[in-house]
Structures are given as structure tokens and as C-alpha cells.
């Protein structure tokens, strides 16, 4: 398509709405505030079409049975492969579309219908912005977070001796920016001990990057146990014993109530519960862990 044809198409779109939808820049176009709103509502409309396909499928009309899973990177690296392997073992694996990204973006995609299931941490900083209408939050496990450093770090020699947060606060830290869960956990525990927040020596969003920086003895970091297990086994990182670690963080699957019985979503939920049951002693296994917000359909 030629540049002239694209420009003509953009003008026609703006004429339909009677307002500017795009900013023309030397290297392309970006949406205006009105354009952002139009795109957001268009996503919702497309989600309604997808939901119609689900309802038609329930009446015997074929529909795409692919499952679209959204997750933050560290869960996509660790838990999601185990879930998919379990699905493949029990009845087969449908086509999967895996989307990684920031939680704010993932929640928007879930609300817009761009993903079917979100696997994430069930904390206010992660799911606090999700519209509760029409969604189910199903707790599928919990993840402990630990303080780690390089074997050459000065605290590594005494890593078996529990360290207090007053001592740890004075160390160089590698942390993600606010309001990520790891950063907020550290700040919350410092607040509980009457200590001022940490100013990280290095601030970095990516969990793997932070671990690699810690391996270079550039500071301490806080990471999910599932992410650091292989590094602890290889000896590239060591775990520091800490007094009053933050409690384990619940891990949950979030999906629309209207899709709870869709074949692929139901199979993923069953896989999650099997993994959870296998990881827990029989006396600790709960009878149910599903929390439903509302049976009403989410509105834009």
C-alpha cells in the first residue's frame, strides 16, 4: 500500500469520528488521546465478537480452541511450562498463544478479551487495577521470595546466620522500580521495622537481569524462589537467611466467568490444581480455592 493510500485511509477514519485520531510525525503516526480511547473500545468490541464465537461453539458451531495465556515474565519462564506439560500429559495440549508483559498491560488485555487466562501474583499491586466484574480469581499456589547475592559478596560467608533488615538496608540493592511486587515487598517490611525505604544501587525491571547483576556481586536482590532455584544449585547465587522475610505471595489464575467451562480454560485450571495438589502434603490440601467476583459480564 502506498503512502498516499495510507494517508487517505487515515483521513477517512478521522472523518468518521469527526476529530483527529492520529498525530502525524516525521517517522510515522501515533494515536491522539481520542485515538487511544477508540482503540481501547475497539478492543472491547472485538472481545465481544470472540465471546460470541465461544457461545456459538457451545451450540455446536466450530470455533478456534486455542487458549491465550498472559503472564509476567518470571511466571512464563517457570510455572507456565509446567502447566502446559501437565495439560499435554492429561488429554493433550491445544494450540497455545503465550503473551508476556507488564501486569498493567496484561490486565488490560484480559479485560479487552485479548487473552483468556492471566496467571499472576494475587496482590493489590498486581490485580488491584483489574475491574472485578465478571472475573474469577482461582488461587493455584504460593511463591516464597528470598534475598540472594553472589558467593563473593561479603554477606555470603555468614549466609546461614539470619540477618536483620537494619543491616540489610545498608547494603547495595538491585531492585525493580515501584510499584512492582518485589519492590513493594521490600518497602513494606522496612516500614514494619520502622526503617526508611531503600534507594537501590541499581534499578532494573527484568528479573533475570537483576539476578545476573547480583551474580556479579553488584548487590543483593529479592527474587521468587522458582526463578533462583537453578542458580542456587549451580552455586552462582547464595541465599541469605533473613529475619522476618515477606510471607509467600499467592499465585492465581484469572479468567472470565463466562469462559470457565470452555474446554481449554477448564483443562488449564485442572492442570493447575493437579500441580498444586502434588506440591502440598495431603493434610494441607484445601477443598477449594476459587473466588468468584461476579457473574455479571464485565462492561467497558
Q: Main sheet?
A: 6 strands, mixed
CATH fold-level topology of the largest domain:
D-Maltodextrin-Binding Protein, domain 2
Helix and strand string, N-terminal first? HEEHEHEHEHEEHEHEHEHEEHE
How large a portion of the residues is in β-strands, by DSSP E?
Answer: 15-25%
Major sheet: arrangement of strands: 4-3-5-12-6-13
Q: What multimeric state do the chains show?
A: single chain
Shape: globular
What's the CATH H-level homologous superfamily of the largest domain? Periplasmic binding protein-like II
Low-confidence stretches: 283-289, 292-300
CATH class of the largest domain: Alpha Beta
Please give the domain count. 3
Count of separate DSSP helical elements: 10
- Mean of residue pLDDT values: 85
The level of helicity is: 40-55%
What keyword list fits this structure?
20% strand; D-Maltodextrin-Binding Protein, domain 2; three-stranded antiparallel sheet; 3 domains; Arc Repressor Mutant, subunit A; six-stranded mixed sheet; 300 residues; single chain; disordered C terminus; 13 strands
Describe the structure.
This protein is an alpha/beta fold. It folds into three domains: 1-63, Arc Repressor Mutant, subunit A (Orthogonal Bundle); 64-143 and 249-292, 3-Layer(aba) Sandwich (D-Maltodextrin-Binding Protein, domain 2), CATH 3.40.190.10; 145-240, Periplasmic binding protein-like II (D-Maltodextrin-Binding Protein, domain 2). Helix content is 42%, strand content 20%. The protein has a six-stranded mixed beta sheet, sandwiched between helices. The chain is globular, with a radius of gyration of 23 Å.
Amino acid at each position: 500500500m502506498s503512502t498516499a493510500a495510507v494517508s487517505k485511509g487515515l483521513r477517512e477514519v478521522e472523518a468518521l469520528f469527526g476529530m483527529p485520531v492520529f498525530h502525524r510525525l516525521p517517522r510515522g503516526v501515533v494515536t491522539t488521546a481520542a485515538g487511544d480511547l477508540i482503540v481501547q473500545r475497539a478492543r472491547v468490541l472485538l472481545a465481544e465478537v470472540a465471546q460470541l464465537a465461544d457461545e456459538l461453539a457451545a451450540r455446536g458451531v466450530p470455533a478456534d480452541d486455542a487458549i491465550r495465556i498472559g503472564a509476567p515474565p518470571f511466571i512464563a519462564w517457570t510455572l507456565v511450562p509446567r502447566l502446559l506439560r501437565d495439560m499435554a500429559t492429561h488429554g493433550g495440549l491445544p494450540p497455545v498463544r503465550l503473551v508476556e508483559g507488564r501486569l498493567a498491560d496484561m490486565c488490560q488485555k484480559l479485560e479487552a478479551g485479548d487473552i483468556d487466562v492471566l496467571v499472576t501474583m494475587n496482590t493489590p499491586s498486581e490485580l488491584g487495577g483489574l475491574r472485578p466484574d465478571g472475573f474469577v480469581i482461582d488461587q493455584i499456589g504460593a511463591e516464597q521470595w528470598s534475598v540472594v547475592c553472589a558467593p563473593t559478596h561479603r554477606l555470603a560467608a555468614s549466609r546461614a546466620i539470619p540477618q536483620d533488615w537494619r543491616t540489610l538496608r545498608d547494603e547495595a540493592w538491585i531492585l525493580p522500580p515501584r510499584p512492582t511486587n518485589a519492590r513493594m515487598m521490600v518497602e513494606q517490611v522496612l516500614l514494619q521495622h520502622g526503617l526508611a525505604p531503600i534507594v537501590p544501587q541499581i534499578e532494573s525491571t527484568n528479573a533475570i537481569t537483576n539476578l545476573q547483576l547480583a551474580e556479579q556481586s553488584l548487590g543483593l536482590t529479592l527474587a521468587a524462589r522458582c526463578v533462583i532455584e537453578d542458580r542456587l544449585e549451580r552455586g552462582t547465587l547464595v541465599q541469605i537467611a533473613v529475619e522476618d522475610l515477606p510471607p509467600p505471595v499467592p499465585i492465581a489464575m484469572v479468567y472470565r466467568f463466562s469462559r470457565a467451562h470452555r474446554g481449554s480454560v477448564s483443562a488449564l485450571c485442572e492442570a493447575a490444581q493437579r500441580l498444586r495438589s502434588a506440591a502440598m502434603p495431603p493434610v494441607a490440601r484445601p477443598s477449594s480455592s476459587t473466588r468468584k467476583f461476579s457473574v455479571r459480564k464485565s462492561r467497558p
